């Protein structure tokens, strides 16, 4: 009886998957430059891959959040580890090419370079703007429906 060959996924299939998912998938190098930007990122942020690759992430980070972002990026690359774990989902506002703001949730992973040291940071990002707006509306309706105690 012949055993089945192991299921091997080629790089082409992985890249096709990453390009078809609705989430943004991006990868940055040790210098902070974007080296991978999928179609989900194009849809969410409005920059074509050709416009984003080679730039740093400041194109989508609001000014008031940039210093904190870069401090965390430098620390993670120096330590070879992120302070965020596998189950951490981060939520922040982000900029779009048109100047708008979207609410995003994302997870990050450190990826090794060719020599085994941290060389890249990958992120999977989801646009949650519509959900955040619905949650805000529900909170406002609940507040409006809650009776206010009478003041003597």
What does this structure look like?
By secondary structure, this protein is an alpha+beta fold. It is built from five helices and five strands; from the N terminus they run αββαααβββα. A five-stranded antiparallel beta sheet has the order 2-1-5-4-3, with helices on both faces. Strand 3 and strand 4 form a beta hairpin. The model has no long low-confidence stretch (mean pLDDT about 90).
Keywords:
alpha+beta; five-stranded antiparallel sheet; 152 residues
SSE order and pairing:
Blueprint: H1 11-20, E1 24-29, E2 34-37, H2 39-45, H3 49-52, H4 63-79, E3 90-95, E4 101-112, E5 118-127, H5 129-145
Antiparallel strand pairs: 1-2, 1-5, 3-4, 4-5
Give a short synopsis of this structure.
This protein is α+β, with helices and mostly antiparallel strands. Helix content is 36%, strand content 25%.
- Rg result: 20 Å
Placed side by side, the strands forming the largest sheet appear as: 2-1-5-4-3
Which H/E pattern describes the elements?
HEEHHHEEEH
Helix share of residues? 25-40%
Give the N-terminus to C-terminus distance in angstroms: 87 Å
In percent terms, what proportion of residues is strand?
25-35%
Got a strand count? 5
Largest sheet: 5 strands, antiparallel
